[in-house]
Amino acid sequence: MLFTIVIPTRNRPELAEFALRSALRQDFDDFDVLLSDNSSPEHADRVRQIVDSIGDRRVRYIRPPSEMSMGEHWEWAIPQADGDYIGVLTDRMAFKKDGLSRLAAEIRSHTIDVITYTSSGVREAAAPFRLQRPPFTGRLELIESRLATRLLALSIPPWGVPTMVNNFVSRTLLHQMVSIYADVFTGAAPDQSFCMHTLDSVEQYHYLDVPLMIAYGIKWSNGHAVGTGRANVASREFVGNLMSKGGLTFAPIPDVMANHNVIINEYCRLKAVQRSGRFVDLDLARYCYRLDLELAEQGKDLQHPDRRRVEAFRLQHGLPRIAPSITAQLGLAVRSGRLIRTPARPDSSADPTGLRPKPRGSRSARAILHTGWLRAGRVLANWKLSGDYRLVWEAVSHRCQEPLREFLEAGGRVSASEVEYRGLRLERRPFTGRDLAGVAYVKRFVDYGGTISKLDGRFVAILPNGLRFETEGSNLVDTILMIIERFVDDEYGWIETDHKVVIDVGANIGDSVVYFANRGAEFVYGYEPEGSAYAAAQRNLDLNHIENAVVENAAVTADGVGGVAFEEVLRRAAAEHPDAEIACKIDCEGCEYELLALGRLEPEVMEHVSQVMVEYHAEEPPSETLEQLGFEVETEPGPNGVGWVRARRAA
Predict the structure, then answer these.
(1) pTM here?
(2) Which run of H or E residues covers position 513?
């Protein structure tokens, strides 16, 4: 068994059922679920009934001999899992359908002891719900534990550290940790306790920058209750258990006043018994600043007992006040090209709490921190390659560090006035702001054998086979990207175009229409509703002398309102080319769900269609209608919720 998902629950049967069903609907088979029920008797029967009613043999129900604290429950339940990799899904979380398959692909391709991931969030407890999804890259990154512990010592919570609720750990490593430390989960907070034990046990961990689960029902979260100062039934029980054992006995200020204090308690507890030497002394000045910041965010004024206690601790230990400037936030400086820690400095302009309005630029600095030291390293790499701090800061501000580094390492050059690569010189204006990432597309395009010139005020991108595409300067980056996707990556190569009619819904600037027409299609019908894109498509068809295609300035809709009906498009193609098979490419930024809604298409309308390729823009692919119409369907999820559906008429 590759995976075991452990679902620990207490007195929330409805939430436990939701979490359990999300685990069981994975598009991956090699896993089981261990549901551990720590409920009081009045709730336990209901949880057991839910498990029995689902009746899935992959689910094992266990119950501790008596009610336990959260940490004790995790310590008792998790080691009973049988999978090669073990993860926790709390009863207010749901796994995305492709979560395990994505993790399995990485585990089979790399040697992995611990792999973490991120999550989307739903803050509301009732409809309407809003999905909050963090920005993510889709990359697998290797992060050093010593960098995570150093950030923790500076009271900067690192991004992506393993907390058991956002990771899978190998059973071998987990059992080694249990045998060495005995109590891996029974600290003040089991997730943070596991985190510190893991950082002490492994030199590196893998982080997959993709949201694989959804956290919801934040009103039931202990962490949220402590962080906001708004107690609920579960958090009162959680804090009560802590206080009955003496509170946060390892934290410098032993009181459950803020989430950060719980994290630091676990840091200090592990530091006392560490085996690695990675846990260094806390920076107490930054510790006080972080606590005071969280307490202020809870709405506690300067006279609140918690804030007065932090200030008394600071004065007692003679600690300087830390102002939230970029340098203070990072706690870093660059000396001879190396990141070093800077000493805390008093700030006479700060108010008595050490707080003042967030300075300009600190948002970008926090973005670097949020993704850890790894991305800070990318900033330094770009600095060394370019020697231009303005360029580096532009890349940081617009999240273009990696494309810029790739371009510079290949010998490219970016100045204030131009971009240069392998003899090609382009004006800098199209590559500013977020479009700075376009320098990486220029590299790929030129490496492929393409070139870019300028004609009558417009840029012309020319492929090695002579095909060419015109564009305005403001659209140059997007145009190069589309050409790379079509002709370099052969994104639509799955569609068999020879002697077929192709319907292109979302033709954009005509790049895909030219692609299909140039690959032997009998005829291509393109549809593009946006006026400037349609005009560019017409120019590009003329520029490449395409005669077996037409592009209409119209949207394709389900019922014809606001455009032309999808059924009408299919009927027209079948009537004008009765002996040809039809292939459909649909990329219309969300309208695919309307076009392919259940019951929307009649079988006779689709009888000439042999292939359908759809780019979808949400979590669930629009595949059910195609399956009902007799197509064999495969899906390929991609980053940022975008993926592909490929459907072929069953033989």
Answers:
(1) 0.54
(2) helix 511-518
